[in-house]
Write a structure and sequence with these properties.
mainly alpha, Vanadium-containing Chloroperoxidase, domain 1, 8 helices
């Protein structure tokens, strides 16, 4: 039996890491899903305590800043942004750009639909409206703004590092994407419209979805390179 080529070994290593990340993130999401359905009483206590503390220590000025930041994570803004960035960063003619942009957008919108279905299934109520700084619609778990923001940041980061290679560039871009996702998660809790486990669940969901999509993309690249 012939030994695997260096390309095949590299492809295997390229799949293994995102696959492991997707599996771990999915397990974390399932645990938080259980907490959202009140299967874990300690998690409910954590949500109530953290929410009460943040509301009682909230600054009006900082809440205004958080409201502006959180508005950037709406899917009405992030979905078109992802499409435009994908088209702009893809090499080739217009058709190739539109195909890549459409595929990237499909990854995001399919995640949005999946997240919406989970939200309807769990039907977790939001925190009391008296604690809200901004208006919010829909149910609480998982946080839509957090997952949409994290998905958009992750997809844009992936597009950037594919176009502009380099270890430093890769580290900086992924750190910025992670920082943005965490910032959006913080705003949703700080503004009183989500429980802490809502945003933690969304971060885990987005990580699992992005990592799983990366696995599929790398497997497809491996097939075409054989």
């Amino acid at each position: 039996m012939a030994s695997p080529s260096s390309t095949e070994r590299g492809a295997g290593l390229g799949v293994r890491r995102p696959l492991l990340t997707a599996a771990l993130a999915a397990l974390v999401f399932l645990a938080l899903l259980a907490s959202a359905s009140d299967a874990l009483p300690w998690a409910r206590g954590f949500d109530l305590d953290a929410h009460s503390w943040l509301v009682s220590h909230r600054s009006a000025a900082l809440a205004s800043v958080a409201a502006v930041i959180t508005s950037t994570a709406s899917s009405a803004f992030t979905a078109p942004l992802v499409f435009v960035v994908a088209a702009a960063l893809t090499r080739g003619y217009l058709r190739a750009r539109l195909v890549r942009a459409g595929l990237v957008l499909a990854v995001m919108l399919s995640a949005v639909l999946c997240r919406y279905g989970i939200s309807e299934l769990i039907a977790r109520p939001r925190p009391p409206t008296a604690d809200w700084v901004v208006q919010a619609g829909g149910l609480s778990f998982p946080s839509g703004h957090t997952s949409d923001g994290a998905l958009a940041a992750g997809l844009i980061a992936w597009l950037v590092v594919r176009r502009f290679t380099g270890r430093v560039t890769t580290c900086v871009v992924w750190l910025l994407a992670a920082a943005y996702a965490l910032l959006i998660a913080w705003t949703r809790v700080y503004l009183g419209v989500h429980w802490p486990t809502d945003v933690l669940g969304s971060l885990a969901f987005a990580t699992a979805w992005l990592s799983g999509s990366l696995v599929l993309q790398r497997l497809e690249e491996r097939e075409t390179s054989i």
